[in-house]
């Protein structure tokens, strides 16, 4: 956590600026110079002009002028808390990561929940996906599970992400709506992207208006790999299951809450943790092998698909507890930088094309957002285990190599020689065989865009199905362009006829347009 103000680093907290009778420390400039008057600028005569030599005034105003940094390009509005992960069931049989080997071991964690579309100042209880990003400060380095509260995503390939986000955020000419899915650009894009249908159904479900961050599930979304001590790979999907249960609000409540208290979710988390009512999640894993992957109805690399828990049960292996609010919102929650590429020995990626693009995107955007390559030196981002390398300099460098050696190999004796790579303990990528031509065509195995959307709809209770239908009607009724509403209905007909009819009726559209022609026939034989 950040240094408390007024502490003088390197001087054992001793001050030479004095303190008043009540022991309140004397205010200083950033240079540590005691301040006599923080209410009045230095002037030439009581009613005269301000003087440039007023270094205290200039430093204070200069610093204030530079307080803002770019907000995140997505997930700008969020709220974070500290806690820990405790392993309750060893995964050593399938994974050699230190965090999964010692039952009872606690690993410090920082979690940031967020909305996706709205800016920093938008409301909490909007209809949107929620980010569920977890940083685990393991003994082998930082591992981030940068997930959402919905197990699938809108697009299959990262190259579509800028378009998707442009379409989801405020429209560029008018600058609104700031945090709603209800607008033409969003529905235009998703209705032209059949692959979005499954996720759109989740976004229109009660999952997208959670009662609180404490009552949400979290999902790593992509298929990852666990690697065992012999280098064997097992596929894995990560789940966070709230011990508080799942709760949502209904749409009318959401509208009222947003009006009365746009900070509803962040206040809820702050109050719960400060009251000692620490929220907890179980970490669950779905584990499967190549044989299952080959027999599965969908491609395990396709992030618009989930693996039904009936087919691969979720094994609970640990718990995440949030028990400490931040000392400072900006220093921790704003400056935290999650990245899918932050991964530790024993865990690896797959070729999911969305994941591969994310691996590039986060580091890139954070270098800009946090002002250069040294944002890993900010305490919230730094590992809590020792770290050594020869990276140096750049803006705000706090951890340059000590001594003579800033390169390797070098022949300097220890300790000047510094760190060396270690083939025995260092990170090794799973040596997956690769072959094939360089192409842009998407695999045909990614072609079924409707069957899981249908499976999701029919798995809902009748009340939840009505909420979904009402959400489609409400959101699409805000769309001004009739052709976009009709186009959306062509997809809903492939999801479920009752849903499509209900939405069409709510929108006053009759007759129903023909169903969109699916790339792959919709499967009606899948269980709910
Ligand atoms: C931020 C999740 C897809 C780029 C975030 C955050 C989460 C998240 C939770 C907020 C992190 C925080 O709290 O600081 C996801 C999930 C995805 C997904 C679950 C799909 C499964 C993508 C894709 C890209 C992308 C495809 C780009 C190719 C970004 C960027 C940020 C971000 C640039 C802002 C990061 C920052 O400024 O620190 N994402 N995302 N995301 N995501 Fe994603």
Automatic annotation (TrEMBL):
Residues reported in the UniProt entry to bind heme: 72, 112, 161, 358, 362, 369
Needed cofactors: heme
Protein's UniProt keywords contain Metal-binding: yes
Active site residues per record: 75, 148
Chain segments annotated as coiled-coil in the UniProt record: none
UniProt entry tagged with the keyword Heme: yes
Chain ranges of the Catalase core domain: 28-416
GO molecular function: catalase activity; heme binding; metal ion binding
GO biological process: hydrogen peroxide catabolic process; response to oxidative stress
Keywords, ordered alphabetically: Heme, Hydrogen peroxide, Iron, Metal-binding, Oxidoreductase, Peroxidase
EC number(s) per entry: 1.11.1.6
GO cellular component: cytosol
UniProt biased composition (Polar residues): 1-8, 26-43
Segments for region (Disordered): 1-46, 410-436
Signal peptide: none
Annotated catalysed reactions: 2 H2O2 = O2 + 2 H2O
Protein purpose: Decomposes hydrogen peroxide into water and oxygen; serves to protect cells from the toxic effects of hydrogen peroxide.
Family to which this protein belongs: Belongs to the catalase family. HPII subfamily.
Name this protein carries in UniProt: Catalase
Gene coding for it: katE
Full protein: residues contained: 6 to 533 of 701
């Amino acid at each position: 956590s950040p240094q408390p103000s007024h502490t003088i680093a390197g001087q054992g907290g001793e001050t030479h600026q004095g303190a008043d009778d009540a022991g309140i420390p004397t205010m200083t400039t950033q240079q540590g110079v005691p301040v006599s008057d923080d209410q009045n600028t230095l002037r030439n005569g009581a009613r005269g002009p301000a003087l440039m030599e007023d270094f205290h005034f200039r430093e204070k105003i200069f610093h204030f002028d530079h307080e803002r940094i770019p907000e995140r390009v997505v997930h700008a509005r969020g709220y974070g808390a500290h806690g820990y992960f405790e392993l309750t069931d060893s995964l050593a049989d399938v994974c050699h990561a230190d965090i999964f080997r010692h039952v009872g071991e606690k690993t410090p964690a920082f979690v940031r929940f967020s909305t996706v579309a709205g800016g920093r100042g938008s409301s909490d209880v909007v209809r949107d996906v929620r980010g569920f990003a977890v940083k685990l400060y393991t003994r082998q380095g930082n591992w981030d599970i940068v997930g959402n509260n919905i197990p699938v995503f809108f697009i299959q390939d990262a190259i579509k992400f800028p378009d998707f986000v442009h379409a989801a955020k405020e429209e560029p000419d008018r600058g609104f709506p700031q945090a709603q899915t209800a607008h033409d650009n969003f529905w235009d894009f998703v209705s032209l992207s059949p692959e979005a249908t499954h996720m759109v159904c989740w976004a229109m479900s009660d999952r997208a208006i959670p009662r609180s961050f404490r009552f949400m599930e979290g999902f790593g979304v992509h298929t990852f790999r666990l690697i065992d001590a012999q280098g064997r790979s097992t596929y894995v999907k990560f789940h966070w299951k709230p011990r508080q249960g799942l709760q949502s609000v209904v749409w009318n409540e959401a509208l009222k809450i947003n009006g009365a208290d746009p900070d509803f979710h962040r206040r809820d988390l702050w109050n719960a943790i400060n009251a000692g009512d620490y929220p907890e999640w179980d970490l669950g894993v779905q584990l499967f092998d190549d044989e299952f992957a080959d027999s599965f109805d969908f491609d395990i690399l396709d992030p618009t698909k989930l693996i039904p828990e009936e087919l691969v049960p979720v094994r609970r292996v640990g718990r995440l507890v949030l028990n400490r609010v931040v000392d400072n919102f900006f220093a921790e929650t704003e400056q935290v930088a999650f990245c899918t590429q932050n991964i530790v020995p024993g865990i690896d990626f797959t070729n999911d094309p969305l994941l591969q693009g994310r691996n590039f995107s986060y580091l890139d955007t954070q270098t800009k957002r946090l002002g250069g390559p040294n944002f890993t030196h900010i305490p919230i981002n730094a590992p809590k285990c020792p770290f050594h390398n020869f990276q140096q300099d750049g803006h705000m460098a706090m951890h340059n190599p000590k001594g003579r050696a800033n390169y390797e190999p070098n022949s300097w004796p220890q300790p000047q020689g510094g760190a060396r790579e270690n083939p025995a303990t260092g990170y090794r990528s799973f040596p997956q065989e690769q072959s094939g031509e360089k192409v842009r065509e998407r695999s045909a195995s990614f072609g079924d865009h409707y069957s899981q959307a249908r499976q999701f709809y029919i798995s809902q209770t009748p009340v939840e199905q009505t909420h979904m239908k009402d959400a489609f009607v409400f959101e699409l009724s805000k769309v001004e362009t009739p052709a976009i509403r009709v186009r959306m209905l062509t997809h809903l007909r492939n999801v479920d006829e009752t849903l499509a009819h209900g939405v069409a009726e709510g929108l006053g559209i009759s007759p129903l347009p023909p169903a969109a022609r699916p790339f792959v026939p919709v499967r009606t034989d899948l269980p709910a």
